[in-house]
Amino acid sequence: MKKAKLLGSEPRRSREWLRTEETRAAVIRKRLKSIEKRYGRRFRGIMDDAVKLAGTIEHLARFGQSRSAEEAVEIAFDIELLSSLLEAEIDQILAS
After folding, report:
1. Are the beta carbons of 62 and 47 closer than 8 angstroms?
2. Could you tell me which of 93, 95, 7, 3 has the C-alpha nearest to residue 50?
């Protein structure tokens, strides 16, 4: 039931959400790369993890757009989990 609330029952709505998440992850990944270039080795380990997570979210969201509605909902939950991990990584970077 929660899945239906999250994405709605329409496959098109699920795909729109996935497109939004793909774009969001791409923007975050690019921003992190820019910060990494600016500050160099200072954030190396944490930054690498965050960039990889953003890239994974981006790829999963793109992949989910071509899947069935049921699969897209499952992928969306994976993306939500990875997004929370990414937020934790970013919080760690900002706290440094």
Report:
1. no
2. 93
